[in-house]
Amino acid sequence: MLSSLDELIREAELAHGHLCAGQILGVRLAMFGLSKLGIDDPRGKDRKRLVTFVEIDRCATDAIAVVTGCRLGKRALKFRDWGKMAATFVDLAAKLPNHTDVILSGAATSRSEVAAQSKDPYSLNSTQAHQGILSNNLNAPAPGPSDHLYRAIRVAARESSKQRARELHPEIENKNQQQMLAYRELSDDDLFSTEWVKVELLPEEFPGYKSDRITCARCGEGINFHRELFRDGQILCRSCAGETYYEIL
Ligand SMILES: [Zn+2]
Ligand SMILES: [Zn+2]
Questions:
Q1: Which ligand is nearest to the CA of 234?
Q2: Ligand nearest to the backbone CA of 179
Q3: What percent of the chain has pLDDT over 90?
């Protein structure tokens, strides 16, 4: 069972280092997203069912990691640096059928539907893995409808939530205190907007994915998870291919 709001806020405070409005908002956001998916034990029996995308690296992000059990180091937490207070909770048990397969075969046994019935969503066949390698390695556009789509719920904090906090507790001058109390009390619908979405998750994005390490032809460093690029007939790491965030001093 998912712990109570108070228990999760306490855990988030410990993990994050302090209690703040962001912790409470993050805990509420994650609890709301999980409830929409019907996932009530994300750190126990449902732990292989969830991948979470976060769109900001602020206080609330830590709380979302605590509630979901999705961590960067487990590859279950994906960071998209969009500066938005939002997260998308991907249900790995809800693989969506490949639209083309359904139309062509007219049968209910497309490859993706068979995969959706698999007990362990982490176990991927070699064909799926191979497709992932090809699409990433060659930097090709996605070849038609994807065979790797999963149902997900995206939850975004409403811009009006700070104003709602002011209205609810005008007697509290300290903004953080005001929001900490209000974010406990306001309804999910007051705090968040949601949308059902589909997310493409290639085999190499899965937490349990195993791959050989590829060596960069220029710097000689190893590369995991097919993050290498082909440039001028060479296999290069992102840095050597020019996508670098640092320069050698
Ligand atoms: Zn904080
Ligand atoms: Zn390199």
A1: 2
A2: 1
A3: 77
- Rounded distance from Cα 55 to ligand 2 centre (Å): 28
Question: Residue 27: how many CB atoms within 10 A of its CB?
Answer: 28
Dist. CA 191 → ligand 2 center (Å): 44
- Which residue's structure tokens are 């639209």? 99
Q: Give the per-residue pLDDT at 172.
A: 96
Interval 57-84 mean pLDDT: 97
What is 5-210's CATH number? 3.30.1330.130
Residues of the chain with CATH 3.30.1330.130: 5-210
* Domain boundaries for CATH 3.30.60 within the chain: 212-249
Helix (H, G, I), strand (E, B) or coil at 215: strand
Q: What spacing in Å lies between the alpha carbon of 134 and ligand 2's midpoint?
A: 20
> What's residue 130's pLDDT?
39
**What is the per-residue pLDDT across 21-35, written as a single tens digit (0 to 9) for each?**
999 999 999 999 999
Q: Which residue has the higher pLDDT, 144 or 187?
A: 187
The 10s digit of each residue's pLDDT in 154-188 is: 999 999 999 999 999 999 999 999 999 999 999 99
Ligand lying nearest the CA atom of residue 17: 1
Contacts of 41 (CB under 8 A, 6+ apart): 1, 2, 47
| Domain 212-249 grouped into CATH 3.30.60 | yes
Q: Is the pLDDT of residue 143 over 80?
A: no
Tell me which DSSP letter residue 246 carries: -
Among 230, 200, 195, 199, residue whose Cα is nearest residue 216 = 230
For residue 16, the ligand closest to its alpha carbon is: 1
